[in-house]
Amino acid sequence: MDPEGSCAEDDPHIKLMMKGSTLRKVKSRFWKKQRHFRLLEDGMTIWYKSGWTGQGHSKFSVSDLEAVREGHQSEVLLSIAEEFPAELCFTLVFHGRQGNLDLVAESQDEAQAWIQGVRKLIHKTQTMDEQERQDQWVRDWFQKADKNKDGKMNFKEVKKLLKMMNVDMNEDHALRLFTMADKSESGFLEIEQFVHFYKILTQRDEVWKVFQDYSGDGETLTLEELESFLRLEQQEAEQSSHHATELIHRYEPSESAMKQSAMTLDGFQMYLCSLDGSIFKPELLELHQDMNQPLSHYFISSSHNTYLLEDQLRGQSSLEAYIQALKRGCRCVEVDCWDGSDGEPVVYHGHTLTSKILFRDVISTLRDYAFKVSEFPVIVSLENHCCLEQQNVMASHLRQILGDMLLSAPLDGQIPERLPSPQQLRGKILLKAKKIGGLETCVDETLTDEVSEEEEVADGDPESPNTEGPQEEKKKKKSKLSRELSDLVIYCKSVHFHSFEQARSSAKCYEMSSFSESKAKKLSKEAGAEFVRYNSRQLSRTYPSGLRTDSSNYNPQDMWSTGCQIVALNFQTAGLEMDLNDGLFRQNGSCGFVLKPDFMRDASSRFSPERPEERPSYKPLRLSIQVISGQQLPKVNQKEGSIVDPLVRVEIYGVPLDQAKDETGHINNNGFNPVWNQTLNFVIHVPELALVRFVVEDYDKASRNDFIGQFTLPFTCIQPGYRHIHLLCKDGMPIPPSSLFINISVSELTQRGQTQKVQDL
């Protein structure tokens, strides 16, 4: 590491440290010995040895140091205060449990050189710590491009490396920066010089401009100036004063600036790139919602055909698929059970070539992974195609493997008038399946154990191409249901949906229906307000059409907009729909439960997704997004010489009136630091249900644009002001250091009903 950038050699404090000094190491009033200390050439290691024997030595890294205390600021130095004046004394404080190092210099100048020099080095290492990932990223690229492993590159090789890194720049400008970094004038850059070259390349003019707008002296932001920025730009009101102080302490690398309650450009950029400067309100990432409401009042992260890793016809059934879904916060998994050849039920997609796994192994996996990322309940949606004997085997496995985890009786033995809450059901696994009778009649031995196959169709997939025989014939059939299995169904009894009127007059709160995507959309269009009211009391599950044999997904937002809680998606298929699911459930501690807006929890609600302007609390908002710049976007095409032409599209998903998108122009040949400075405007009619998706694509005039990265979040979780969006890849994983820099403002519409010209999705 070059400790002081380009002026390291000129810094008198660093020079003296590298030359070395004899300092007195003090362990107690009686143990005070001279040692020779010096800073090694790497600018990171302090080395010392006994001054008189010249034998054994010790060393430590500057990164191990937390701070330098000046004067008598340790118990040991206070004990020798009469012998050595404060101006000669200082203490090196280490991170963690390692003891302090108390030192006494020969002169005040020498003491100051070490105090100031070490502070500068700590400042540098702290800055480097913030950028460690970035530097590692750069070093990795260098190593990749250094084919002959001689640790250096000429200008031609550097140009080639820049193209690999998605940078296409003017040759004269690149050569000028290369010459600045080539301090030895050798015509080559070694790895550290290349890191320096890269840093000159990545200076953020757009961040500097924002900083200059608020900095009186152009060097730092005073506490008052930072408060003004937070209040006026970041739209923080009362908390701006307290928050400004917090941010300085959290991100300001300069100790002297921190002492003056000020923030340098370095600290400002670190803040903007941090979690505090992210588009997502940090406090809403934590578990913060009321978890004591009925289950029907929450959106629940849900998986369809959870056992599949691939498509619906030939894909592999796998326990790993359950583990992956549960690790993503999924709280409703599907288990399709069929008779196994040896008396053990199996799980697979019936009448297809998908592979089979044992039911008992699926249940063991649920036991081991259900509550790793969330303590709230898991619903097992059971599609039961087994004979009576194997149903009994399933019931036995559920009881024996899950034990107390399995909810096998109503809470407190009471027949519920409303569903219990996620809080009440913590650590419990609930079975969703058909049931003989209801909770009120579960001890009635006179009930038949036959259930209508009509319910099977509703609970299965009427759109499936795999159904056998005419639908009419199938509905006449009856199937036998095991009483042992039936008794394990408590709060999620599967029933066929007849009508909203029938449900209103006679349905129990623990009865729930499944709807295919087309049926749910039809109900939403024809009777949206009724569907919302129904979902305030009952649970609804929606699932993809059986015609989606490629495991593609439907837009879950259409279902959430009517209050459907269990919107089952193919978790194994990445893309827009899973981005929306991840976006919604990223909030509230990623626990898999998100409280629905209050107007969707009210049994007398008049809200309809088709007519949002008719609800009493209707208050549309204007969303204005200035897309400023991008940073280090990944390459899409790995061909040599290929550079992306990025554009940014903002998409709004919500009630039909809110579905919109708009995009910036594309920037030719710059995935490294593209600047758009374009503003996109939207009107949001139901902010509580809207999701905002930022997509970066590589423009291609001849064919479909290539996906580069995205980030999706609920409108209600947006932090206004200057923010960074840390992009995710298609699988929803971070792709550091790729980001967008934007400025967001949210305001009320001045005229009711005013519209904004945006392109419909």
TrEMBL record:
Sequence positions that bind Ca(2+) 5: 698-700
Cofactor annotation remark: Binds 3 Ca(2+) ions per subunit. Two of the Ca(2+) ions are bound to the C2 domain.
Bias (Acidic residues): 448-462
Location relative to the cell: Cytoplasm; Endoplasmic reticulum; Membrane; Nucleus
Binding site for Ca(2+) 4: 643, 645, 669
CDD domains (alphabetical): C2_PLC_like, PI-PLCc_delta
Cofactor names: Ca(2+)
Residues of the PI-PLC Y-box domain: 485-601
Residues at the active site: 304, 349
Taxonomic superkingdom: Eukaryota
Binding residues for substrate: 432, 434, 514, 541
Region Disordered: start-end pairs: 448-479
Keyword Metal-binding: yes
PROSITE patterns: C2, EF_HAND_1, EF_HAND_2, PH_DOMAIN, PIPLC_X_DOMAIN, PIPLC_Y_DOMAIN
Gene3D superfamilies membership: C2 domain, EF-hand, Phosphatidylinositol (PI) phosphodiesterase, Pleckstrin-homology domain (PH domain)/Phosphotyrosine-binding domain (PTB)
Hydrolase among keywords: yes
Domain PH: 15-123
Domain C2 as annotated: residue spans: 601-729
Residues the record marks as carrying a glycan: 184
Keywords from the UniProt entry: Calcium, Cytoplasm, Endoplasmic reticulum, Glycoprotein, Hydrolase, Lipid degradation, Lipid metabolism, Membrane, Metal-binding, Nucleus, Repeat, Transducer
Alphabetized GO MF terms: calcium ion binding; phosphatidylinositol-4,5-bisphosphate phospholipase C activity
Single GO BP term: intracellular signal transduction
PANTHER family to which the protein is assigned, alphabetical: 1-PHOSPHATIDYLINOSITOL 4,5-BISPHOSPHATE PHOSPHODIESTERASE DELTA-4, PHOSPHOINOSITIDE-SPECIFIC PHOSPHOLIPASE C FAMILY PROTEIN
Protein name: Phosphoinositide phospholipase C
